[in-house]
Design goal:
Layout lengths: L11 H19 L3 H13 L4 H5 L8 E4 L7 H6 L2 E4 L1 H13 L1
Antiparallel strand pairs: 1-2
This protein binds zinc ion.
Protein name: HNH endonuclease
Amino acid sequence: MLRAPEPEHGQTASQRYNAQRRRDSETARLYSTRRWQALRADQLTREPLCRMCMAEDRVTAAVVCDHVEPHRGDVTKFWAGPFQSLCKRHHDSDKQRDERG
Ligand SMILES: [Zn+2]
């Protein structure tokens, strides 16, 4: 039996947080679909270099197909894009900035 050791606060903020987490996990599953693998491969073929590195006058192979606008768990937005190719460093720093903002 699975029993999550979560306190029952029932606060609006934590409910909002949980709802967002549910939506995030829903789109997180999409990353393992063949549809996403194909879309990602297509993006990295069309744009093989990290866009942010190029802006810094650097040439780095991109490994991540990133959503230009955060989809925030929105499945429609997840598939619609637009996308950009990023290296791992820029992808991770971009995500951190997004979470802070
Ligand atoms: Zn980069």
